[in-house]
Amino acid sequence: MNKTLNQKAWFLVLPVLVLVAFSAVIPLMTVVNYSVQDTFGNNQYFWAGLEWFGELLEDDRIWGALWRQLMFSAIILCIQVPLGVFVALNMPKKGFWASFCLVVMSLPLLVPWNVVGTIWQIFGRVDIGLLGYTLSSLGIDYNYTSDPVAAWITIIVMDVWHWTSLVALLAYAGLQSIPDAYYQAAKIDQASRWNIFRYIELPKMMGVLMIAILLRFMDSFMIYTEPFVVTGGGPGNSTTLLSIDLVKLALGQFDLGPAAAFSIMYYLVILTISYVFYTVMTNMDKKEG
After folding, report:
1. Span 107-127, mean pLDDT?
2. Cis-peptide into 27, omega within 30 deg
3. Tens of pLDDT along 148-191?
4. CA 38 to CA 252: how far, in whole Å?
5. What sign for the dihedral angle of Cα 166, 116, 132, 105?
6. For domain 59-288, which CATH number applies: 1.10.357.10, 2.10.110.10, 1.10.10.10, 1.10.3720.10?
7. DSSP classification of residue 159
8. pLDDT tens readout for residues 92-101
9. In terms of Cα–Cα distance, which of 62, 147, 154 is closest to 117?
10. Residue 52 to residue 262: CA distance in whole angstroms
11. Above 70 in pLDDT, residue 5?
12. Coil, helix or strand for 206?
């Protein structure tokens, strides 16, 4: 007996397709169009082919920004993932304090990005900021506006403060999904705390940790507002990440062609590294299973 296919269901999906087309596909095609053209104003465009891509690949400034971006994302992941898991393991599981901790952990995630940058810009100032003034009073030479190391420490600590809660909340959700029977069996077997974490908690958290790592990588690799507000990419170019360099090229110099090519290459790098992360972690999860 042949089943009758109801094609009317596509009308329910149509609004979503239209929304995605206007918010993603059409802007992407516009960027692709700009990336292969050159303009001298007056809405006159000339075919440039892959010229901008070639120039960007030979630009040492772009490679420097890419290296700084990769280093920033690597540092962020190495700090936030273990720290978030540690916080989740030590949070109360039930009762009033569990709810209280969840609310407190959620607060940094509610602060807008530009406000986070403004808070830490003031917080780290030597003249009026609590952090900068305290370190200066202790005899520590700290000035994120002139010292590249201090600038890096500031934006890393700022991002850790802002986003570690996300990893902790996801890890906590994974822990809450573990049945009590697993812990009871471990208690009967007199398993150590490390063995409980290694063989019970960590495997059960792998799914949410995979999501956390992917989200934190993509967010850290695309970060712009917070470091730009705090350091503006300085001192010098020490904290000029890819996103800051792209905005300077697009809005500062108004080079639409190179900026469009830059953004496409930026997008492809994020997509490629995210796919590698996902593939590696999926294979690890299958081996653990």
Report:
1. 89
2. no
3. 999 999 999 999 999 999 999 999 999 998 888 998 998 888 88
4. 17
5. negative
6. 1.10.3720.10
7. H
8. 988 888 889 9
9. 154
10. 8
11. no
12. helix
In angstroms, the CA 273 to CA 210 distance is 14
The predicted pLDDT at position 71 comes to 95
- Token couple for 105: 């952990």
The DSSP element (H or E) to which 204 belongs, if any, is helix 202-221
Helix (H), strand (E) counts: the chain: 14, 2
How far is it, in rounded angstroms, from Cα 99 to Cα 113? 25
Cα-atom radius of gyration of the chain, to the nearest Å?
24
Retrieve residue 148's tokens. 């590249």
Q: What is the CB neighbour count within 10 angstroms for residue 133?
A: 16
Domain boundary assignment for the chain: 59-288
Nearest to 280 by CA among 218, 214, 219: 214
Can you give the pLDDT at residue 151? 92
Q: How distant, in Å, are the alpha carbons of 28, 86, 219, 286 from that of 206?
A: 33, 14, 20, 11
DSSP-derived letter for residue 253 is: S
Q: Which pLDDT score, from 0 to 100, does residue 2 have?
A: 58
Burial of 84 (0-12, 13-18, 19+ CB in 10 A): buried
